[in-house]
Amino acid sequence: MSGTAAWAATPERGNAAVLRLMTRIALGLGWPVAHALLHPITLFFLATSPAAQKRTARRYLGRALGRPAGWRDLWRLYFCFASTMLDRVFLLTGRTRGYHVQVEGLEILRDAAARGQGMVVLGAHMGSFEALRAVGGAGAPVEVRMMMHTANAGAADALFDSLDPTRAAAVIPLGRPSAMLAAREALERGGVVGILADRAVSGDRMLPAEFLGAPATLPGGPMTLAAILRAPVVLGFGLWLGPRRYLLRFEPFAEAIDLPRDRREAALREWLGRYAERVGEMCRAHPYNWFNFYDFWGEEP
């Protein structure tokens, strides 16, 4: 099964009522109590996860860690994901006290903002990319819009939208005729347009790329979007370092992504290879921050 098909076939865990209850508990009792509850919650979800999901997670961790992944490694991966979900509840409601955010490369965005130049930020499903927008003064000094597919949005996205009404307004839904116009307008205002480039939706064209030392496929759509927007591109990662501790990292990627017509396919593969190489390096440095819980390499029957 291809990576795209595997992701589309993976059901969302939890339901709206449970998520709302957990949110009320977290906001009512505070972060320390909610964080303590993450331990049994993580154990429950790890114990009840489908065997195939745990196999694929182990394979990813083995590649990122450079050794066989054990039960403790799986726990850390699931716990890191649960921690970022909990933190979203507090960050999206403005409860940022106690959070420590280290920012590297913010001068890239500031310099572009001073020139009135918009930028595209390519991210991945690592840590909390949303921390860029949610952590007030520590975040970006400019408008931030996210281009993403909203048709797959589940109960968690609906909950987060209800916690911060501005969140939905900051999303540019892909697949609509107005998407490119909205992105261009944001860039012309000197804003940042974010795209998560490591996951595809059904219908996206997939291209081969080497990722963590093994052949995988990555969607060509996000990189093509970045090329069409004709803006400088940086890589952006919001990495969870520990309880209420994050690293926001921005680094240059391209002055502009060029896909010449006479060698479009080859150029696209080159850019995807560069992206996959850097995301792979980040996975090795922060192995428990990558949250693609499906058969990314297409190894399951």
TrEMBL record:
Tell me where in or outside the cell this protein is found: Cell inner membrane
- Quote the InterPro entries the UniProt record gives: Ac_Trasf, LipA_acyltrans
| A Gene Ontology BP annotation from the UniProt entry | glycolipid biosynthetic process
Q: Write the protein's name.
A: Lipid A biosynthesis acyltransferase
Q: Which organism is it from?
A: Neoroseomonas soli
Provide one Gene Ontology cellular component. plasma membrane
Residue spans crossing the bilayer: 29-52
Q: From the UniProt record, which GO molecular function terms apply?
A: acyltransferase activity
Keywords (alphabetical) are: Acyltransferase, Cell inner membrane, Cell membrane, Membrane, Transferase, Transmembrane, Transmembrane helix
